[in-house]
Specification:
alpha/beta, six-stranded mixed beta sheet, 36% helix, 322 residues, seven-stranded mixed beta sheet, binds nicotinamide-adenine-dinucleotide
């Protein structure tokens, strides 16, 4: 496993250090990194010897030269904005590397089809980061559900609150064309794990979908789910706010709460370990969740049509810049 060579795209962003650490934790070597923004001092903590580029063309030329000279590039890791993932994935595959791409792998189901074609053409693999599937509470829940009698249907409330400041709406994350909007950008992890645990989507109703929150009702093979996501702190219930928490993740299953706000420390490193040991999550694994977030993004909001999540009743907030 040791000694794999990596290149990294999107090195100056928020999540990139977790990838640098994951590469280092798994004995890998970062050959080169790219980001148009040059605030990448963090590289010193992991790979001071790696080359860094702010221009794609020079990064491409450099990697091509290394390949010509006989260096093997094993993986390209992608931490760029969501709407650039599929172009960056193609780049990695065409260089002859496997690709490790952040979530959401792509924004639309037809992007998945196109990538599958290139995977076949290049005979390389695409892996995505779904670190919530590795969380111990989630794993034990899945095991329990799989052992429960067939035909058992669970009633679930999913609540995911994670506050973001006004900067979010200036950045690409606040632009639905670039991030896919909140249900895609924030929600994909949860929709993926719900489908992973409770089976495929049978009904999908969206109640509310604005710049700072989304709520709806889902029926999966084995669950009925009222869900609510928000990045607006004003929506947080008082008990959460009093604890000073900025993130709250909870699944209430038949009245019992599975709270998993913590325990995410090294899940990127664990994700990389799985990929290097050929247990990574490939492109087919994420297709149902990409289909679902695409459908949610394009669904008409129905308002408070029962059954709805209690937080869907909270008064809407104006967009900070509109
Ligand atoms: N798995 C997780 O829990 C998790 C957490 C946060 C973010 N993410 C995902 O990671 C990715 C990056 O998110 P982030 O929060 O680090 O965002 P960010 O905005 O902090 O970082 C993105 C970086 O990409 C760079 N970039 C922009 N255009 C580029 C280009 N053409 N080529 C190369 N780099 C370019 C930006 O300069 C920036 O440094 C997103 O896909 C996001 O959804 C995943």
């Amino acid at each position: 496993m040791a000694g794999k060579n990596f290149a990294l795209i999107g090195a100056a962003g928020y999540v990139a250090p977790r990838h640098m650490k994951a590469i280092a934790d798994n004995g890998g070597n970062l050959l080169a990194a790219l980001d148009p923004f040059d605030s990448v001092g963090i590289m010193d903590s992991y790979f001071p010897g790696a080359d860094f580029f702010v221009e794609f063309e020079r990064f491409d030329r450099h990697l091509s030269r290394l390949l010509r000279e006989g260096t093997k590039l094993d993986y390209v890791s992608i931490c760029s904005p969501n709407y650039l993932h599929d172009a960056h994935i193609r780049f990695g595959l065409r260089l002859g590397a496997d690709v490790i791409c952040e979530k959401p792998l792509v924004l639309n189901p037809w992007n998945v089809d196109a990538l599958e074609e290139i995977e076949r053409e290049t005979d390389r693999n695409i892996f995505t980061i779904l670190q919530l599937r590795l969380h111990p509470s989630v794993r034990s829940l899945r095991k329990k559900v799989m052992e429960d009698p067939a035909g058992k249907i669970y009633d679930i409330d999913l609540t995911y609150l994670t506050s973001r400041g006004n900067w979010y709406y200036t950045s690409w994350k606040g632009d639905p064309a670039k991030s896919g909007g909140i249900a895609t950008n924030i929600g994909i992890h949860f929709f993926d794990l719900l489908i992973w645990i409770f089976g495929s989507v049978e009904q999908n109703v969206v109640h509310v979908h604005t710049h700072d929150r989304a709520a709806g009702y889902l029926e999966l093979e084995r669950a009925r789910i009222r869900w609510f996501l928000s990045i607006n702190e004003d929506v947080f219930p008082d008990d959460i706010r009093k604890k000073g928490w900025r993130t709250y993740r909870s699944l209430t299953i038949g009245g019992e709460e599975l709270e998993f706000s913590s325990g995410f420390g090294d899940l990127h490193s664990e994700s990389y370990a799985g990929i290097l040991e050929e247990r990574g999550f490939g492109i087919e694994e994420i297709r149902p969740a990409i289909q679902l977030v695409h459908d949610i993004r394009n669904a008409e909001s129905m308002g408070l049509l029962p059954p709805y999540h209690p937080l869907a009743e909270v008064k809407l907030s104006p967009h900070p810049f509109k």
